[in-house]
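Shape is hard to put into words, and the shape of a protein is harder than most. The fold becomes a row of whole numbers, each drawn from a learned catalogue of backbone shapes. The outcome of that step, for a single protein, is printed below.
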Amino acid sequence: MTSLDSVQALRNSDDSAASTFFELLEIFTSQLLEDYVAFKSEHNNFISEQSLDDAALTRKMRLLTLASIASSTGQSRSLPYSNIASSLKIDADDVEMWVIDVIRAGLVEGKLSQQKQMFLIHRSTYRVFGDQQWREVAGRLDMWRSSLIGVLGVIRQEKAGLIAQKERELREVEAKVNGSGGGYRRNQQREAIDVGLD
């Protein structure tokens, strides 16, 4: 949305309120709660003058911030309660409530580990998808590829071992069949010799 020409025009608008709205839009598009707090400090009374609901905006920024930090966990895919409390500027006791809210909003999927005091992330939504996000996706795909190559190697090794075992079993069966068949023929020859002697 911020890349639209009409929206970009607000950035350089002579109307200070328009350019301030653009700045606020950018914060909600890609930045964190601390940026929103800094915006309010820099633009004193702008939120109230524009009849915006600060409580609703703060709540939305907390949800978006949690989604952003969940997306940036990398390969660990886990987020300590302490990090969440610090990023959202909330008490540690309220962390689980906010995590449940962000899951309900469909921004993140995961589960809470009260014992480890961690939020274990299964899936998270990127607010902005740019070069950094593509690099993260490429990194995860490389990791999955390496894992699959390892699994494929184990499967091939097990398959080769199974084939070798079946071949050994088949040779053992053939040896037993040939061994007992040879014994039967020797017994017939002995019997024929015995009959001839009689």
Helices lie at 5-11, 16-30, 33-42, 46-49, 54-71, 81-88, 95-104, 131-197. The chain has two domains: 5-128, 130-198. The mean pLDDT is 83. The longest strand covers residues 118-124.
